[in-house]
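Table 4 source record.
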Amino acid sequence: MPSRDLLIRRIIPALIFLSLWLDGWLFPLILLPILYVLLIEKKSLEWLGFSRHGLQSSMLVGVLITSLLCVIYCPIFFYYLPTMEREAIDLYSIFLDVIWYPVYEELAYRAFALSHFAEPHGSYLSTKNLSANLIQSLLFLSIHKHHFSVPLVLVPVFLLGLLNGFLFIKTRNIYGCILTHSTLNGFALLLRYTFV
């Protein structure tokens, strides 16, 4: 029988993360990690990176990551442009891509997963933190099945997960990660709307 501490610190968070990994479109599911942290672990949302601490550096590095990923994404987009079909871009798809998925995925993959499975005060280059970051990046990549037919797009998706993981571990602030994710998704939508 696992100890209560192991259950609360590792097993239940792993099950919560697994449920978040399996299903990103069920909106109320985002409450699961938040309520777990608040009610079971008795920690504040600052523990998940919703804090003013590290905000400025998180946002600044987030802008730099966004710039890098947009530069990487642009030639990939134009490479696949001849094969793309025109899709309607409505307010709901903008909401999903620019608001919902960035908040949901950053909360699940960076804030919740890395808060539970990386060392919060260790170097972001420690073996444990590198391993946790690499695993969450690969799981993040795996939920982007809609990009499997355009495999080069998986490069910036993987880099988004990995770099945002480094950013979160370093600053313990989620806002720069959300900014990066939201802006990159918005940039991809803008390119589709403009050129397809």
